[in-house]
From TrEMBL:
Residue stretches making up the ABC3 transporter permease C-terminal domain: 181-297
GO cellular component term of the entry, any: plasma membrane
Domain of life: Bacteria
Keywords annotated in UniProt: Cell cycle, Cell division, Cell inner membrane, Cell membrane, Membrane, Transmembrane, Transmembrane helix
Record function comment: Part of the ABC transporter FtsEX involved in cellular division.
Source species taxonomy: Bacteria, Pseudomonadati, Pseudomonadota, Betaproteobacteria, Burkholderiales
Localization: Cell inner membrane; Cell membrane
GO BP, sorted A to Z: cell division
InterPro entries: ABC3_permease_C, FtsX, FtsX_ECD
Name of the molecule in the record: Cell division protein FtsX
Bilayer-spanning residue ranges: 170-195, 226-254, 274-296
């Protein structure tokens, strides 16, 4: 066991010396990999920060019926019961929102409190919120019900809700696929950069490797420092990519805070959780080591 540890410690020290012996080349390669890795990390930060916001929004399709100004609470209750009885196969839930409750909700929002405080009376109508059952042809079904309910005598207007939420979910799904493809592209960049780095190191130390083989060095002994070189390059690049991403989120959050304040809300971009970042560092180190092994195998056959 101690012999095995000594061999790996020796290989790690050799890899560190090789990195240090060519500082400009090593730093250039690490910067290329780290800046490339920072792109999917920032994209993942945006996706991770947007998902809780979407989950808080009502994703079930809803249709809101606004009654005419003269409608009474009893009219709203009777109409809600009528809709439930006429469309039991389409409606999941029906709730009546009294105009007084709607006004209290709006006044609780600081963005609306000042404007509503100067009104002499409540301008809001009674409303009925209808949640529809999910189906394969939901959009067509919701539009048909909205057209039908607009013809009702007590109804002033009908609004289809949650459609924009469904579009947002579709956009997030598209972003997830794009992030996966971006991660694949980043993996190829890491493989290519480490492969070329190890290739140059192997060609530079061609004579040293030949002498080591003549005195009895095994193939694993020759290749092990190059594997550590690739793994160390991947680890250092990943850590620098996380630091670059954290720094990039500072101005992004400042700009996002100004935009969110204009809508009366708050949204902060944050890095993925620590476990995901650690797994990413380990994965990049493994990919870099595999690329180094492939490179040293191809370029030390002499």
């Amino acid at each position: 066991m101690s012999r095995w540890l000594r061999q790996h410690r020796y290989a790690c020290m050799v890899a560190l010396r090789r990195l240090w012996s060519h500082p400009f080349s090593s730093l250039s390669n690490i910067l290329v990999i780290s800046l490339t890795l920072a792109i999917p990390i920032i994209a993942a930060s945006v996706l991770v920060s947007a998902q809780p916001v979407v989950k808080q929004l009502p994703v079930s399709p809803e249709v809101t019926l606004f009654l005419r100004p003269g409608a009474t609470p009893d009219t709203a209750t009777q109409l809600a019961r009528q809709l439930r009885e006429e469309h039991p196969q389409d409606i999941q839930a029906v709730r009546v929102v009294a105009r007084e409750d709607a006004l209290k909700t709006l006044k609780a929002n600081p963005a609306w409190a000042d404007a509503l405080s100067v009104l002499p009376s409540n301008p809001l109508p009674h409303a009925i919120v209808v949640s529809l059952i999910e189906s394969t042809d939901l959009a067509k079904q919701a539009n048909a019900l909205a057209r039908e309910w607009r013809q009702l005598e007590a109804v002033d207007s009908v609004q289809l809700d949650s459609e924009w939420v469904r579009r947002l979910e579709a956009i997030l799904g598209f972003v997830r696929i794009g992030l996966g493809l971006l991660a694949l592209g980043v993996a190829l960049v890491v493989l290519a950069t480490v492969f070329n780095t190890v290739r140059m190191q192997a060609l530079t130390q061609r004579e040293e490797i030949g002498v080591a083989r003549l005195v009895g060095a095994t193939e694993s002994f020759v290749r092990r420092p190059f594997l550590y070189l690739g793994a160390l390059t991947g680890v250092i690049s990943s850590i620098m990519a996380i630091l670059f991403s954290a720094l990039a989120l500072v101005p992004l959050n400042a700009a996002l805070a100004r935009l969110a304040d204009s809508y009366g809300t708050q949204l902060i971009l944050s890095l993925p959780d620590s476990m995901s970042l650690v797994l990413a560092v380990v994965l990049i180190a493994i990919l870099a080591a595999l690329s180094a092994r492939w490179s040293v195998t191809r370029n030390t056959r002499f």
